[in-house]
């Protein structure tokens, strides 16, 4: 840990919000998820607060019962390209699945976003949890969980290979001598792998940060292995300090074992703080929110990581049902955590639904209490920062106005941007082009 | 022809330009193709001139010898999303191939651009001419020409079906009664076709213009048939008035035969005017430009529609070679036109290369001469407007400052936008949702 180590903060922008009832908040425009002005306004607020990045989650499959934001929303790449020219410093992270895209198209669109934003793009790599997505893409069955992760690994390799199609000085653009391209600095990829064959070269140069940042989110064995191998940022779960600390240590250990610098894989748990003047008031707000929860919606939410398994068929007051017959091919890590928690704590189905609907929240209290807990997670090996998951303007404002200044006073968060690129904000190095010859500095040192 | 019929003008924005030497112009920044500010600036100029739309061409395959713009450039969807929030009225047309994308992703991104721009998106449907593209997408061989067009037809059907996933009033967003979605107005597609199986529904609502406008460009038999069936705008070739008139009549006839309103398929030939104070000066500029052409680059350009066939292997001063052994699976219509022209006019290979490098240009002269020729094409059944293909700022400015006012004075072009959507500008009707019940007006008339 260096003296200058600081928190990294992301703001998840999700329109009307990813829960079933969040859209009912009186301050939230009902069309927030399809209104580009809403996104631009919130990205500018996050930039004014010196956040590292905004983050767009995604899913390519819906049913009539899907939560409002996912039912009807802007697509991440087009959305972030529009936000790019309305902002100047904040990073732009978009989610896109490796299961139903072509690597060439993905490489091209993120590289384009990276140039449009002048080095602020990140790709959150997901494999898609919901099995129904397959039928939107010509397949009867979703790829098996293990296969999805193997494909994702190769997919990212291909994309990163395409991103190095041109060395950074490939384009002299010398009009006097009529030399646009230095042809020796254009490199085809000629990838032939288990899942993809891609010749290249990509038709776009690199950005001021070299390559877009790679984010990932995965709790399962395969998810952690993929994250340790490829991720530079991880959007993690924040159920409790202990769970976060175990995850943090495990992923950093795995990355180190792969020869990576563990400081170059930043772990940012989701943060949904409930903040009020006093701890008592904040607790009261939490209780009121939980009191408004609807059991049927909680059961739908519980079923989602099990590929929308119907939990209403079981006795609510019997122990959490045996679901060992389910394939757990969807959001496997989350489903496993639910089963594990229910068994460990001897929960009934009803209790399990409430537990996960109410989302055990470690960040409830006064601004000082929340800042203290953030500091504890940051200093005691549970996180490198957080991805703020609030939907309502007031919830964002109270965090920015009352918690962030405390973190800044403690030297834990920047008061001004020191860099122009997302890699700069995150303390990640510029990605050297794999084809570049030894840098002049190295040659001079010989 | 109605009294109010007016020209439609598009501006093709292509950075440093799609020719080999265009980037050498002293007024053109060498990085124009990867500089979003360049695109925003030029889109705003086209909007200030009241153009209907800007147009982005595309190709997903390059070699070291590809023309500068295609070597290194922003991707159309991300580019146009960034331009969308920097403009307010002008239409935004982007090219995307049906050969190497998933319909669900294409439907989603164009729908998102359509919402971001508040009803100004258009999709230029292409099938990709260059066979090498296949190897960027896991295929050894490019789809056969006929197969490409069959796939394109079904692809567009699927995309348009997905665009109607929600009826226009599907989202009451009624907070008082907690009704976000009217579930009866969400419609899966359940498409099962020869090439694609897509269940839907799409996770995004329709825009103020109902659906994005469909553009297409195709000269071959299959290209014309597809355009007549699906296109609402066609980016056509403008070699000569006679050729344009034949094409215009043929495509309108085909569309009419399919039961379509021929006024709802607008034909916009490419326009590369050479304008000076007098006709003599303009002719002199044309001759000077042609004098600068390089025979080797002309031969590369000649080979492109033949999938970059190497024409340097033949005797330059013998008759145009027999290329009947080539499959013409690339830009088939253009290749056929080159062969036809060379045979008809008994051209040598050298003469053929010059003829197509120099691009026989019907629009050379004083502002009045060019305006007269535009008017003749428009009134005598050769076009519904034009897609302006100039790269240099001065060439755009002279057209806007000296030709457009003449067209406006003759009542042939708008002096102010009368609509907010691209369909409005083009005189195309709002696309009714296929699932909507009879409109109230129709019910009232019974």
TrEMBL record, chains A, B:
Residues 35-378 form the Luciferase-like domain. This is LLM class flavin-dependent oxidoreductase. The keyword Flavoprotein applies. Pfam families: Bac_luciferase. Keywords: Flavoprotein, FMN, Monooxygenase, Oxidoreductase. Belongs to the NtaA/SnaA/DszA monooxygenase family. GO terms for molecular function: monooxygenase activity; oxidoreductase activity, acting on paired donors, with incorporation or reduction of molecular oxygen. FMN binds at residues 58, 95, 145, 149, 220. It comes from Sphingobium limneticum. NCBIfam families: FMN_nitrolo (TIGR03860). Gene3D superfamilies: Luciferase-like domain. It comes from the Bacteria. InterPro entries: Diverse_substr_monoxygenases (IPR051260), Luciferase-like_dom (IPR011251), Luciferase-like_sf (IPR036661), NTA_MOA (IPR016215).
């Amino acid at each position: 840990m260096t003296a200058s180590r600081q928190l990294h903060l992301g703001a998840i922008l999700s329109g009307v919000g990813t829960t079933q009832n969040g859209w009912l908040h009186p301050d939230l425009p009902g069309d927030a998820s399809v209104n580009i002005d809403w996104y631009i306004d919130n990205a500018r607020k996050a930039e004014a607060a010196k956040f590292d990045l905004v983050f767009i989650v995604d899913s390519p499959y819906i049913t009539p019962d899907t939560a409002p934001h996912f039912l009807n929303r802007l697509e991440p790449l087009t959305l972030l390209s529009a936000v790019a020219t309305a902002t100047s410093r904040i990073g732009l992270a978009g989610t896109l699945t490796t299961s139903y895209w072509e690597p060439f198209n993905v490489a091209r669109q993120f590289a384009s976003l990276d140039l449009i934003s002048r080095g602020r793009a990140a790709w959150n790599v997901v494999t898609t949890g919901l099995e129904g997505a397959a039928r939107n893409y010509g397949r009867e069955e979703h790829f098996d969980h293990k296969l999805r992760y193997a494909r994702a690994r190769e997919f990212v390799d291909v994309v990163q290979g395409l991103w190095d199609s041109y060395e950074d000085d490939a384009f002299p653009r010398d009009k006097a001598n009529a030399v646009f391209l230095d042809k020796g600095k254009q490199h085809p990829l000629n990838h032939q792998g288990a899942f993809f064959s891609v010749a290249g070269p990509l038709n776009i140069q690199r950005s001021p940060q070299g390559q877009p940042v790679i984010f990932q989110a995965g709790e399962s064995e395969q998810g952690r292995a993929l994250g340790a191998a490829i991720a530079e940022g991880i959007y993690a779960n924040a159920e409790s300090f202990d769970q976060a600390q175990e995850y943090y240590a495990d992923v950093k250990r795995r990355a180190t074992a792969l020869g990576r610098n563990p400081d170059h894989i930043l772990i940012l748990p989701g943060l949904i703080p409930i903040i009020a003047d006093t701890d008592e008031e904040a607790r009261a707000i939490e209780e009121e929110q939980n009191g408004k929860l609807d059991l049927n919606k909680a059961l739908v939410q519980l079923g989602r990581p099990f590929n929308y398994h119907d939990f209403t068929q079981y006795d609510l007051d019997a122990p959490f049902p045996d679901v060992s017959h389910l394939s757990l091919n969807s959001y496997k890590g989350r489903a496993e955590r639910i089963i594990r928690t229910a068994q460990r704590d001897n929960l009934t189905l009803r209790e399990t639904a409430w537990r996960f609907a109410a989302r055990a929240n470690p960040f409830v209290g006064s601004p000082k209490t929340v800042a203290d807990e953030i500091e504890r997670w940051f200093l005691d090996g549970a996180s490198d920062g957080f991805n703020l998951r609030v939907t309502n303007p007031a919830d964002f404002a109270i965090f920015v106005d009352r918690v962030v200044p405390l973190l800044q006073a403690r030297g834990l968060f920047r008061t001004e941007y020191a860099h122009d690129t997302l890699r700069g904000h995150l303390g990640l190095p510029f990605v050297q082009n794999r084809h570049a010859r030894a840098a002049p500095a190295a040659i001079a040192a010989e």
